[in-house]
Write a structure and sequence with these properties.
Blueprint lengths: L1 E6 L29 E6 L2 E5 L5 H8 L6 E3 L5 H4 L6 H4 L6 E6 L1 H10 L14 E6 L5 E3 L2 E10 L2 E8 L2 E3 L8 H7 L4 E5 L12 H11 L3 E5 L8 H7 L4 E3 L5 E3 L5
Parallel strand pairs: 3-4, 4-5, 5-6, 10-11, 11-12, 12-13
Antiparallel strand pairs: 1-2, 1-14, 2-3, 7-8, 8-9, 9-10
Length: about 260
């Protein structure tokens, strides 16, 4: 399995527009964070997790040739704002339709926000999506098992995903115990860490590290970080040996899968 971090930033990205802090002015490429998204390559499939407004650039930068399915954590704009840019990948699939796995509330939001993609007689060239409604039952994508689990984004229940030895969690404030049991002891954990100070709907760095300590993954990567997290080089020096701040474009090889 190969995991590529397409974006590791929060909803505003880093640098943040009109901000002149030291982090936003950094020349270190690892301090430039697009909106959070990841690509999982396993079992001969390319599975995209979230598709935010930076997706077009992320796809070009990563050289993504095909996408077989999309997993959606929730429908906040920084996680779904790039769906129209999937049209080139839809065209490579049977019936030109992209399988999208999401909860019922996310599906309703898609119909409201991009109704032209679901029209009975769509305009030529628009992306087409097959929405598969999920809850917490495992499902398969061409033989690849995916296990969705609840994540609490303050009062909003969203989804994290476990794919084999890897679990991906973003926009988490608290993780229910039943979800912890599903990912405890995982090889590779991706978890959000917004900043040092507490936040009303996202984990702080201390909260993310406490969750990591409880879940005992072999290694963990932090994502969905704001400019308040500081410089990448400084953050890495503060973390336990098995925890790393992810950066845009980083690729991780995960043993035990294709």
């Amino acid at each position: 399995m190969r995991l590529t971090f397409l974006g590791t930033g929060t909803s505003t990205g880093v640098p943040t527009p009109a901000c002149h802090c030291d982090v936003c002015r950094s020349t270190d490429s690892r301090d430039k964070r697009l909106r959070a998204s990841a690509l999982v390559e396993t079992g001969g499939k390319n599975i995209l997790i979230d598709c935010g407004p930076d997706f077009r650039y992320q796809a070009l930068r990563a050289g993504i040739e095909s996408i077989d399915a999309v997993l959606v954590t929730h429908s906040h704009y920084d996680h779904v704002g790039g769906f129209d840019d999937l049209r080139a990948y839809c065209a490579k699939l049977p019936d030109n339709r992209m399988p999208v796995y999401c909860t019922a509330d996310v599906a309703a939001d898609f119909h409201a926000r991009i109704p032209y993609c679901f029209a009975e007689h769509p305009y030529p060239g628009v992306p087409k999506f097959d929405l598969h409604i999920i809850d917490t039952e495992p499902f398969g994508i061409g033989g690849v098992e995916v296990v969705p689990f609840p994540v609490m984004h303050r009062n909003l229940e969203i989804r994290g995903y476990r794919i084999g030895p890897m679990a991906y969690i973003t926009d988490c404030l608290t993780l229910p115990e039943r979800s912890r049991e599903l990912v405890r002891g995982v090889d590779t954990l991706v978890i959000n860490a917004l900043r040092f100070k507490p936040h009303y709907s996202h984990m702080s760095l201390a909260e993310a590290l406490a969750l990591i300590a409880d879940l005992h993954p072999r290694r963990s990567y932090l994502t969905h970080m704001s400019h308040d997290i500081g410089f990448h080089r400084d953050l890495g020096a503060l973390l336990p040996e098995n925890v790393s701040p992810a950066y845009d474009g980083e690729t991780v090889e995960i043993d035990g899968t294709d």
